[in-house]
Design a protein that fits this description.
alpha/beta, single chain, about 375 residues, two-stranded antiparallel ribbon, globular
Length: about 375
């Protein structure tokens, strides 16, 4: 399946940190006939990177209207995540007459299968691989997040094509993404500009609304003005006459911070526990937890029994909003709040969170 693999070892001067590090670069031809390639940038572990034994990764999918793969949204984007410590992979997928759907999505799955097959050799964390796509590449990245065999752990969608009408302007067989968003969709980071006159902002808004409907964690930045296809918004990519909000370049730093939130940050023993969960509550999980809503937990008799001591403390510390209002009335008003957030806000049983979570975790979420 994979042909003409070109492997080189290079020394790259890390201008940001002032050190020289070894980085492996491999170019893999996934499909010679359709000119589908995967370029892998693999950073070292160990040595000077004392606390890094394995790394997360990100697959970068350039835009180009399914007619070509933009170089501006390939390596320049990959370098952003290499600097942050991620292994980066640039996928150049089927375009032009070869872009008939679902061929590009198959290209993505083929790339992921190859990456996963090399995870041990590359010291890559197989469950911490994100995807970043732009414009039509954002459509493919969103398709990966919603309908691929190998769904990513997180998705960064830059001025993405989401709506069916917009997608079919690029490739007439390409589907809209919104109908495929479901509870398994990974957390998403979206960014675009309000004045994009190539991919209407409604595409980003529709994706945001779909994620919200399924309680998927997301972060969205819609900047006031700027062109389509700004990539990293660096001056090496945009001409000096480009009219663009000065905040637009912030998406690169913000997306790295967001990835740390949803995948975990580098720590002494691997990646830390993510602070942002894939869903805004645990109501859709198989077992109860502190991250379930008050309404879900208080509607479960077994949970009420387990939480009896905590509930007694809650009754003493959570005062009614109005005279005559009962504790049960208060729980009804706060029913959409997670138990973790309510207890933390009121300073209740904070030192026993792990113990409480473990007890709840034995109760089926039905």
């Amino acid at each position: 399946m994979y042909m003409n693999r070109n492997c080189t070892e290079i020394l790259q001067q890390n201008r940001y940190e002032g050190i020289t590090t070894a980085m492996k670069v491999e170019t893999i031809i996934l499909n010679q006939e359709r000119n589908v390639t995967l370029t892998a940038y693999i950073l070292d572990v160990g040595g000077e990177f004392r606390n890094v034994t394995k790394r997360p990764g990100i697959v970068v999918i350039p835009g180009g209207g399914y007619q070509f793969c933009s170089d501006r949204e390939a390596d320049p984007v990959a370098l952003t995540y290499l600097k942050a410590g991620y292994d980066a992979f640039v996928l150049r997928y089927s375009v032009g007459e070869n872009a008939v759907w679902p061929t590009p999505l198959k290209d993505y799955d083929d790339a992921m299968e190859y990456i996963l097959s090399k995870a041990k050799e590359w010291n890559l964390l197989p469950d911490k691989i994100a995807v970043a796509g732009f414009s039509a590449g954002g459509h493919l990245a969103a398709a990966a997040a919603t309908m691929a065999k190998h769904r990513p752990a997180a998705a960064i969608l830059g001025y993405p094509v989401i709506r069916e009408d917009t997608a079919q302007e690029c490739e007439k067989t390409a589907p809209g993404i919104v109908p495929y968003v479901d509870g398994r969709t990974c957390p998403c980071f979206l960014f675009a500009t309000r004045t994009d006159d190539v991919v209407p902002i409604q595409n980003t808004i529709d994706m945001m609304n779909a994620l919200n409907a399924y309680q998927i964690s997301f972060e969205c930045h819609i900047y006031a003005y700027g062109p389509h296809g700004f990539s990293t918004a660096d001056s090496s990519i945009q001409s000096s006459g480009t009219i663009m909000a000065p905040r637009v370049p912030n998406w690169t730093k913000d997306s790295v911070g967001w990835l740390k939130d949803v995948l975990g940050d580098f720590a002494e023993n691997g990646l830390s526990t993510p602070v942002c969960k894939p869903r805004i509550s645990g109501d859709g999980d198989g077992w109860l937890s502190l991250d379930c809503t008050i309404g879900r937990i208080f509607g479960n008799p077994k949970a009420l029994l387990v939480l009896a001591p905590v509930i007694a403390e809650m009754r003493g510390k959570i005062k009614p909003f109005e005279p005559g209002m009962t504790f049960e009335d208060m729980m009804g008003i706060l029913s959409k709040m997670t138990l973790r957030n309510l207890l933390a806000e009121r300073g209740i049983a904070v030192d026993r969170f792990d113990e409480i979570d473990a007890l709840l975790g034995k109760i089926p979420n039905i």
